Amino acid sequence: MNPRTKYFQLRLTQEEYDFLKEKSKDYSSVSHYIRSAIKEYSDINAKQKLQLLNDLGLFYRKFQDELSWAGGNLNQSVKRANELSVAGLLSATYISEVLKPSIDSTRKTLESIKRELLNVTKKAIK
Q: What DSSP designation does 24 have?
């Protein structure tokens, strides 16, 4: 075991000191907290994982609204098609002018999301 004999002095404001004490309460000491933080945040893999998590968060926020919109439109279109079909009124015009464009739009949105997810996955593999 290598004994710790070196000291490092650091000047802090009262707020910084209180913050450091609060953050280190789950550790055996402030020194242990600082050593752990340095080890974790100096690790390249940890930085990359943190960046990947941030990228994934952005990805999900970006596409949440688009997925809701696409799903709602598709659901309405299919519901209406089902109603018309049951009533014997489903026309080829409705399929070509309403249902098909809605399905195509949903497909394009999903393809875009898949591409973005592939990009994030490629970053994770590197």
A: T
